[in-house]
């Protein structure tokens, strides 16, 4: 950075450009400035080190905003050692330094700011100063959190105007119109879900990290190729029973607005009571399953045993009551505590053999995948989080619509692959026909009964995935039946294309919005500083552990150490 040199006669567009240049030079060359005079027509400064003769004088040229350096006296004798906490490296200067980096990477961390400034300028700055600069930089680029809440009503109106049929509402609380909840479901998503997606809805929430916090509640589905399909989302000031009840009520309204009859649905979630109660109340005829990824991660976290995780998945996939009981017995043998823990989740919500609904092969929620869309934007104002989702939806709909237009297969690629794998295995099977719809399929390992009338197989794969298993493929092809005709419509290429047939239209810039009503941010704010970590008391984790008794090596009594022993003090007092 020694290239940041200045010389007599050098000109600058205006006084601001000159001040920035002299500041850059001071930081780059590691000396502190002491300003003697600074106004709109002149600038005089010297080196802040005592005894250093370096001095600079600049003035404004007549009839022009241009600033020029008139004199530059002396050379530095101070050693240029201003490297720690340089006074010229203000928050505003750091903001200018990191602005472009912040645009490219929202999660540009304060420690990375410190590293980059030291690497480029050789100076160190306080962590707090870097953190403040990042906060101010994000606000300069994306607006303030307060403005984000204020713009929500106008943004909802723009959504409904540019994407007719969408459901978008802002809800406030109190006489001062404090933000409480926000819900949105684009028409393209509603149409795609009702006309092409699997009738499966995944529910979940992710914490936001902006100034006023909040939780993003989401409802997603699966397309016929297994991709995540965002259906609706909302932001609430606090995640609780009421907020989930409200979210599912709005979701039901949005679906009823787009169809006369809501199809039978299966919900997937982490099983928390708030979600379970809301699903039961707002979608009483639906089935509710617990996400197996959540369940397996929970048992792994609590019991630190990979064998338990393997047995849990095997129990979930068991196709017979006997097989399920055997796996549960093995879990009991490995850890009775884990078996007791698992009892809080009824098998009817996660085990294949006991589940009444249809999951189309999806044992786990795709909420985790959707959360990746906005993971980087969680620190931004609420309006920016919503814009990120809108932009991502627009991109994904266009990408998948374009990609599927080139497909020549009857089914989506993943479903087509499943059928082809089934054909490969079916070529080695023997098929015996019982009647018009029932077949016995014999393989080297086992014998399975296939019923084409009920679309079922004793291996249960056909019922689980709703795509003919290898035994069903063998039975259907042996009597020249069309395998594709026995595959659920959701897996066809036509249904996939229908998912993304409607466009997510762009929304004009906020300069074109008309403010409809004022929405204030919620009263709760993120506390200043780094969040406290919850530390567990060792004694709480070891309730049955015998407490250690301390002994004094001086008096051999219990309850204190040698350094706090008062025996000598007592003896001295008695002698006195």
TrEMBL record:
InterPro entries: MULE_transposase_dom, Transposase_MuDR, Znf_PMZ, Znf_SWIM
Signal sequence, renumbered to the chain: none
Boundaries of every SWIM-type domain copy: 439-480
Top-rank taxon, per record: Eukaryota
Keyword Zinc-finger applies: yes
Keywords: Metal-binding, Zinc, Zinc-finger
Molecular functions (GO terms): zinc ion binding
Matches recorded under SMART domains: ZnF_PMZ
Name recorded for this polypeptide: SWIM-type domain-containing protein
Species the sequence originates in: Solanum stoloniferum
């Amino acid at each position: 950075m020694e290239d940041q040199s200045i010389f007599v006669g050098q000109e600058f567009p205006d006084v601001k450009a000159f001040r920035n240049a002299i500041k850059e030079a001071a930081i780059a060359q590691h000396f502190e400035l002491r300003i003697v005079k600074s106004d709109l027509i002149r600038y005089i400064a010297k080196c802040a080190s005592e005894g250093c003769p370096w001095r600079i004088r600049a003035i404004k040229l007549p009839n022009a905003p241009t600033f020029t350096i008139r004199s530059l006296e002396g050379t530095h004798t101070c050693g240029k050692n201003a490297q720690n906490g340089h006074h010229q490296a203000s928050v505003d200067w750091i903001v200018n330094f990191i602005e472009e980096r912040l645009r490219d990477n929202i999660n540009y961390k304060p420690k990375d700011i410190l590293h980059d400034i030291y690497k480029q300028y050789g100076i160190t700055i306080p962590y707090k100063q870097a953190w403040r600069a990042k906060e101010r930089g994000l606000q300069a680029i994306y607006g303030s959190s307060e403005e984000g809440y204020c713009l929500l009503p106008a943004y909802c109106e723009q959504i409904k105007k540019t994407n007719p049929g969408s459901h978008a509402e802002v809800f406030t609380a109190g006489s001062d119109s404090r933000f409480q909840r926000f819900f949105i479901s684009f028409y393209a998503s509603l149409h795609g879900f009702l006309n092409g997606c699997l009738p499966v809805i995944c529910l979940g929430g992710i914490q936001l990290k902006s100034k006023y916090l909040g939780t993003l509640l989401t409802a997603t589905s699966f397309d016929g190729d297994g991709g995540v399909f965002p259906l609706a989302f909302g932001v609430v000031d606090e995640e609780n029973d009421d907020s989930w009840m409200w979210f599912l009520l709005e979701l039901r309204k949005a679906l009823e607005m787009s169809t006369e009859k809501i199809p039978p649905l299966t919900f997937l979630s982490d099983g928390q009571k708030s979600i379970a109660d809301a699903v039961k109340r707002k979608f009483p005829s639906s089935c509710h399953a617990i996400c197996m990824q959540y369940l397996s991660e929970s048992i792994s976290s609590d019991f630190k045993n990979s064998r338990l995780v393997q047995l849990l998945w095997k129990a979930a996939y068991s196709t017979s009551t006997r097989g399920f009981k055997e796996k549960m017995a093995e879990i009991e043998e490995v850890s009775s505590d884990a078996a007791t823990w698992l009892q809080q989740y009824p098998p009817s919500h996660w085990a294949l053999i006991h589940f009444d609904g249809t999951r189309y092969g999806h044992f786990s929620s795709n909420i985790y995948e959707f959360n990746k869309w906005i993971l980087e934007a969680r620190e931004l104002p609420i309006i920016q989080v919503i814009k990120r989702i809108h932009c991502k939806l627009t991109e994904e709909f266009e990408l998948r619509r374009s990609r599927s237009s080139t497909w020549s297969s009857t089914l989506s690629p993943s479903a087509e692959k499943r059928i082809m794998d089934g054909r490969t295995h079916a070529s080695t099977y023997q098929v015996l026909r019982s009647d018009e719809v029932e077949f016995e399929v014999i393989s080297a390992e086992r014998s399975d009964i296939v019923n084409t009338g009920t679309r079922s197989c004793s291996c249960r794969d056909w019922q689980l995935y709703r795509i003919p298993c290898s035994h069903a493929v063998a039975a259907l092809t042996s009597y020249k039946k069309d395998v594709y005709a026995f595959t659920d419509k959701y897996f066809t290429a036509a249904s996939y294309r229908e998912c993304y047939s409607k466009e997510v239209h762009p929304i004009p810039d906020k300069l074109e919005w008309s403010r409809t009503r004022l929405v204030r941010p919620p009263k709760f704010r993120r506390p200043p500083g780094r969040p406290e970590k919850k530390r567990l008391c060792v004694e709480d984790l070891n309730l049955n552990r015998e407490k250690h008794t301390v002994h004094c090596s001086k008096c051999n009594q219990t309850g204190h150490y040698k350094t706090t022993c008062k025996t000598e003090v007592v003896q001295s007092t008695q002698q006195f």
